[in-house]
Specification:
Layout: H1 2-14, H2 16-22, H3 24-43, H4 52-76, H5 78-85, H6 88-94, H7 99-131, H8 139-164, H9 170-187, H10 199-207, H11 209-221, H12 223-229, H13 235-244, E1 250-251, E2 254-255, H14 258-282
Antiparallel strand pairs: 1-2
Length: 287
C-alpha cells in the first residue's frame, strides 16, 4: 500500500498541470485579493482600528490554507481517474494485491499531497505576514494550527474521494476541479465576509464541512491580532466582528465551539470515506 502511495506521489509531482490545477482555488483567491477585494475587506473593519491591515492579512491566509486542503486533495485524486481511464486499475486489481491496499494507496497519497501543499501555502502566508510587518504564530498556536490542518485535509480527502469515485473520464474530472476551484471561495466565505451574505447563503457556508476548518484556523491565527486591535472594545462588539467575518458560527441562538467544529470535520471524514468505499466496491469497472 505504501509503495503504491509513493508511486502516486511521484506521478502527481511530476505533472505540473496537476499541481497547478490543485492550487487553482488558491490562485483565484490571491488574484482577487490583490486586484479587487483587499480594500473591500478593510472596509468591514471599524474605522480607526489599530493593526487593521494585519488583522485582515491573517484572516485571508487562514482562509487560503483551508481552501488548499480541498483543492490539492482533488488534484491528487486525478491520478485515480487517469488510472481508470487508461484501464491501469484493472491491472492493479488483477494483481495479487488486496483491493483495500490499492484504494488505501490512493487515499494516503491524496492525504500527503493535501498536507504538503497546505503546509507550503501556510509557510508562504506566514512569510508574507512577517515581511509586511506582522508577527508569526506562537509555538502553541502553530501546533494547534497544524492539528486543524491535519483534520481539514483528512475531511477534504474523504469528501473528494467520494466525489471522484463517480467520475468516468478525465474531462469530467477537469471540469469538476475547475468548478470547485472557482466556487470554493464562496463555499468557505472568503470572497465576502459571511455576515454580508443573504441568510440562506450564510447557512450554506456554515453547513459546508471545510468552513468549520476555516473558522478554527481563523480563531487560532486571529486570537492575538483581535486582542490587539479590539483592546478597549466591549465583548459584544468583538463577537459581532467575529460573527461578521466567519470567525464564530452561530446557528440561531447557539454558537459553535471549537469542539463542535472538530467533531463535524472528523464525522464528515469517516462518513464520506465509508460512502466512497461502498461506491467503489459496487461498481463493475472496479472489479
Amino acid at each position: 500500500m505504501l509503495n503504491f502511495a509513493v508511486r502516486n506521489l511521484k506521478i502527481f509531482f511530476r505533472q505540473k498541470s496537476a499541481v497547478f490545477f490543485s492550487l487553482l482555488g488558491v490562485f483565484v483567491i490571491i488574484g482577487l485579493y490583490v486586484l479587487f477585494l483587499g480594500n473591500i475587506w478593510i472596509d468591514y473593519i471599524p474605522e480607526g482600528l489599530p493593526e487593521a491591515e494585519n488583522l485582515m492579512k491573517n484572516w485571508i491566509i487562514a482562509g487560503i490554507v483551508s481552501v488548499s486542503s480541498i483543492t490539492t486533495t482533488m488534484g491528487a485524486f486525478g491520478i485515480m481517474v487517469e488510472d481508470r481511464v487508461r484501464k491501469s486499475s484493472k491491472d492493479f486489481y488483477s494483481a495479487p494485491i488486496k483491493r483495500s491496499k490499492i484504494v488505501g494507496g490512493y487515499i494516503i497519497s491524496s492525504f500527503v499531497v493535501g498536507f504538503i501543499m497546505s503546509f507550503i501555502t501556510f509557510i508562504t502566508g506566514e512569510t508574507y505576514i512577517l515581511l509586511s510587518g506582522g508577527t508569526l504564530l506562537s509555538f502553541v498556536s502553530l501546533v494547534k494550527f497544524l492539528g486543524v490542518m491535519l483534520i481539514s485535509v483528512l475531511s477534504s480527502s474523504s469528501m473528494v474521494f467520494f466525489a471522484v469515485s463517480f467520475f468516468q473520464s478525465t474531462s469530467a474530472f477537469t471540469t469538476a476541479s475547475t468548478i470547485l476551484g472557482t466556487l470554493i471561495g464562496f463555499l468557505t466565505g472568503i470572497y465576502l465576509p459571511i455576515g454580508t451574505l443573504p441568510e440562506a447563503v450564510q447557512w450554506v457556508v456554515k453547513l459546508f464541512p471545510i468552513s468549520h476548518a476555516d473558522a478554527l484556523m481563523r480563531q487560532i491565527v486571529l486570537e492575538k491580532p483581535i486582542d490587539i486591535s479590539f483592546a478597549g472594545f466591549s465583548g459584544s462588539s468583538v463577537f459581532e466582528f467575529k460573527e461578521m467575518m466567519g470567525i464564530a458560527y452561530t446557528y440561531g441562538e447557539y454558537t459553535a465551539t471549537a469542539t463542535v467544529h472538530i467533531l463535524v470535520l472528523i464525522g464528515v471524514a469517516f462518513a464520506f470515506f465509508a460512502l466512497a468505499l461502498w461506491n467503489v466496491s459496487r461498481k463493475k469497472e472496479w472489479n
